[in-house]
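Task: complex structure prediction.
Instruction: return structure tokens for all chains below.
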Amino acid sequence: METIFVGVSGINAVDNPGPGIAVARSLKEDPELNVRIAGLAYDAMDPGIYMDWVIDKSFIMPYPSAGGEGYLQRLLEIKESYGLDIVIPNLDAELPVYIKYAAQLREHGIDSFLPSDQQFRLRGKDKLADLGDLIEVRVPKTEVVTSLAMLAPAVERIGLPVMVKGCFYKAHRAYTFQEAVAEFEKLVAEWGYPVIVQQVVAGDELNLVGMGDGEGNSLGMVAIRKIWITSLGKIWTGVTIQNERLLAAAERFIRVFRWRGPFELECIVNDDQLYLIEINPRFPAWVYAATGVGINFPSQLLRCSRGLPVAKNGQYAAGKLFVRYSYDLVTEMTAFQNILHRGESP
Amino acid sequence: MRGVHRLDLPSEGIAFDPTTGDTFMVNDSGSRILRALQTGSSEQEVVSILRQEYPVTREDAERDVSDFHSRLRTLGLA
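Output:
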């Protein structure tokens, strides 16, 4: 069986986990694939670096914001020294770089399965209101704020409390205008502009992971209800569901946008109304829940990009429990030293 | 009773709504009422079923079924 070298980012299995470990684990569970996982890390403390039963070898990457050329160069170095046939980027902030350099990477023998730059931009948090109409779901009142002066009128129009969200990551609820200003300034310092101010919608959180083939067809979807979340709002326990309205919205999203690659819909259901909160253009960290109910999206992605047969059965059972847990490991300090000094694990 | 029909009763004492992910705990007679409603029984037929299967007066059975129905409405299942 051919060995496929897969670069997987987001191996920060911390309290706000990246999707990388779930993606790598799913790939390793496909009995028809023989994969070697190259973990693409941004910090020597990313736990995935030390989880050698999931990540075969790890490499420290430059931050994508430091410039695409350096990033591309690092991927080519990894290809030469270890092997890299395909990359699966799992973090929002790195996707623009991967999309921009997708063709160049392909020329060097590194595949990916990503949306186009236009698709990526259309689903941005700042475009959510327009998108809701297209896929026939409600969207909470949302304003895009690009200066402190714009914050007060935006909060006034939406009404307190509001969610204050960064362009890529993080969302905080603000009950007063002073809290909104404080959260706004923190987000700008960390992630820059724009900042999104959104109406708070109460209700149950329903999320969906899906994948489109780029031609308007679905490669499967799995929905989950969050039962228990962490203080950061991340799912810790959930249950798979079959919510027809959510599944239909996802089908429309794939069809209307001809979406290529994985995505996550974050929704809130309230008195039979479905509100779309966010669309993430990548796998969610809970993607292993889908693998666990028989739809292995990371494997589907790899198969699509390599022209291998893709499973067509998109059926899954509702009522399957997803439980996240923490785990400890002890290893040699040399592993940490190696990654610090050489930028790669032993 | 559209909501009742979508409930899954996987084991004794549990009802699961696969659309919302809600899980409900129900006692033995509650499970019996749900199963009866799912097969299309009317409230009066459910009362009769309860009287046949449990030592209960018609008055108590009618009150229990009515209370149960109110609860289903509160939960958006009826």
